[in-house]
Amino acid sequence: MKIKITSLIISLGLISVVACKGSASPEAKLLELAPKFQKTMCSKTIECTKDEFAKIPPAYRNMIPPFMQSEENCITFFKGKFDEAHKKRVTEKKEVTVEMVNAFESCISALEKTSCEVFKGGKGKVAIPGCEDMEKYSN
């Protein structure tokens, strides 16, 4: 009898842990998505701009923002921006919403599927189809 009760308690504990794990908060989900977003955004940006940057004369390459010169610099830049945004949300007591998480998921999916044509001729402002909602959350 004691063994049945103990095994029942352990089973309930495991079920509750699994159930809680499956329903992560939007903040936890966003923190989980951040590295994937950073990696996807940076690899696509570097891949799609390297040919254009190669055309820039060496004397003017120092004018290229450091975060656009390598994937590592880009990821570091975006990680810093994510950390700043997190601190700002905490300070202003703003919570991550499901809509925000959905916007990040949609943008990641769009970035993975987009071609480099989107990055060409943007004159400083690139609009990536599928990432339109991200602008609402970037401030």
Could you characterize the architecture of this molecule?
Helices cover 65% and strands 0% of the residues. The protein has helices spanning 2-22, 26-54, 71-91, 98-113, 134-137. α2 (26-54) packs antiparallel against α3 (71-91). The chain is an all-alpha fold and 139 residues long. The chain is built from five helices and no strands.
Sketch the major β-sheet: none
Strand content: under 5%
What structural category characterises the helix and strand content? Answer: mainly alpha
N-to-C span: 59 Å
Helix coverage percent? 55-70%
What general outline do the C-alpha atoms trace?
Answer: globular
Arithmetic mean pLDDT: 80
Would you list the SSEs in sequence order as H and E? HHHHH
Count of DSSP-assigned helices: 5
Q: What's the count of strands?
A: 0
For the CA atoms, what is the radius of gyration?
A: 21 Å
Q: Which runs of at least 5 residues are low in confidence (pLDDT < 50)?
A: 1-21
Topology, please?
Elements: H1 2-22, H2 26-54, H3 71-91, H4 98-113, H5 134-137
Helix pairs in contact: 2-3, 2-4
Keywords:
65% helix; mainly alpha; 139 residues; 5 helices
Task: Summarize the model shown.
This protein is mostly helical and 139 residues long. Helix content is 65%, strand content 0%.
